């Protein structure tokens, strides 16, 4: 069964993993020496694969929006200091599930970003939101 779950919070199965096929295994640091020479250091990464999950838009329709109650659960989770990695379950390409141990990735922007599909005040539990989750493997 295709599903997405983060630390036990059920999410829509069709969230898009936007950087799934982006190369990440080689880390690189580039510096300039005092003489002006370029110093490039590369090494193999053992962890730190980015996993960015987001709601997408197909014409006028949103794919994988979440409701306010789920957003509040994610917001609470993202505001905690993570003592232990969280478990992320994603659907596999040919059936089954893939499981990753992840942490929030806070260096690339907000770890959790959400926008209402339709602005209304006050927001109610039935309202839908477009989300972006920024995670990394550990």
Kindly list the characteristics that best describe this protein.
138 residues; mainly beta; nine-stranded antiparallel β-sheet; 1 helix; 8% helix
Report on this structure:
The chain has about 140 residues and is mainly β. The protein has one domain. It has one helix and 13 strands; from the N terminus they run E-E-E-E-E-E-E-E-E-H-E-E-E-E. Strands 1, 2, 3, 6, 9, 10, 11, 12 and 13 form a nine-stranded antiparallel beta sheet that branches. It has a two-stranded antiparallel sheet with strand order 4-5. A hairpin with a 2-residue loop joins strand 1 and strand 2.
Largest sheet: 9 strands, antiparallel
Taken in chain order, the helices and strands follow as EEEEEEEEEHEEEE
Instruction: Please give the number of β-strands.
Output: 13
Residue stretches low in confidence (pLDDT < 50, at least 5 long) are: none
* Dominant shape: globular
Strand content: over 45%
Span of the ends, CA to CA: 25 Å
Outline the secondary-structure elements.
Elements: E1 4-6, E2 9-11, E3 16-17, E4 26-32, E5 38-44, E6 50-54, E7 56-58, E8 61-63, E9 66-67, H1 68-78, E10 86-91, E11 97-104, E12 112-116, E13 128-137
Antiparallel strand pairs: 1-2, 1-10, 3-6, 4-5, 6-13, 7-8, 9-13, 10-11, 11-13, 12-13
């Amino acid at each position: 069964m295709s599903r997405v779950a983060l630390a036990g919070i059920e999410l829509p199965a069709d969230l898009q993993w936007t950087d799934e096929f982006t190369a990440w295994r080689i880390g690189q640091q580039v510096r300039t020496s005092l003489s002006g020479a370029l110093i490039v250091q590369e090494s193999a990464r053992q962890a730190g694969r980015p996993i960015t999950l987001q709601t997408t838009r197909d014409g006028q329709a949103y794919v994988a929006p979440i409701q306010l109650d789920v957003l509040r659960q994610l917001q609470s989770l993202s505001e905690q200091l993570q003592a232990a990695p969280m478990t992320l379950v994603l659907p596999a390409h040919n059936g089954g599930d893939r499981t990753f141990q992840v942490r929030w990735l806070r260096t690339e922007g907000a770890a959790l970003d959400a926008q209402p599909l339709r602005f209304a005040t006050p927001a109610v539990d039935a309202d839908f939101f477009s989300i972006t989750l920024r995670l990394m493997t550990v």
